[in-house]
Amino acid sequence: MNLFTLLQVPMDSSVVASVDQVVQSAPEESYLSLVMKGGWILLPIFLLSLLSIYVIINKWLVINRLGKKDSVWLSRVVELVHEGKIDKALKFCVERPYASAKVIAAGLKEFDKEDAEIQEAMEVEARVQISTMEDQMNWLGITASIAPMLGFLGTIFGVIKIFYDIARTNDLAIDTISTGLYQKMICSGAGLLVGIIAYSGYYILNGRIDKAVVSIDKESNEVLKAIRANKRGTVEA
Question: Which one of 127, 137, 150, 232 is most buried, by most CB atoms within 10 A?
Fold first, then answer.
């Protein structure tokens, strides 16, 4: 009998009925109901996800505001310093929300002092601005470490319960074991997802902070050079 003949042989009605019964006995579940079977461990993972999203959005906005580059503003400040209009340059810096503007303003306030004191004032203010940008970043690092571990912990608790139930009932039904396992593996998946989000946000934001620090250093050095040039011109005059 060839393959074509075999494919034409009608299936037994009892086999068809049993297959239909199996398909009907396993209704498709929604994603929400599937996730909710992960257990109580999903609650702290969910809270960590909210914390991560809040920190990422908040720090993104803060870094955008403090680390913004404005070449027109900087050139105007340098020009005012060269012209000796320190009060106008200081006012121009105070009106801007940039981190570099605050650093330069701190140096201009010490204009009448020695160069070392001006530079020190700028460095102190720069550390303050960098600290503001790095604030709350540790929460992302903590979440990236803890969320996956919580997920694995939930899975381990689930596996322990499965083997405990097997030992108690002496029931090795594969559907019981597989159902318990996939429900508890949800914890691991959720923990890894939250950890990936926090980890990615941490390194992306850190990269933007590093760029902002370089920009602050560059712009403050330009104004510092202008201050020194203005003082040399005043002495020579």
Answer: 150
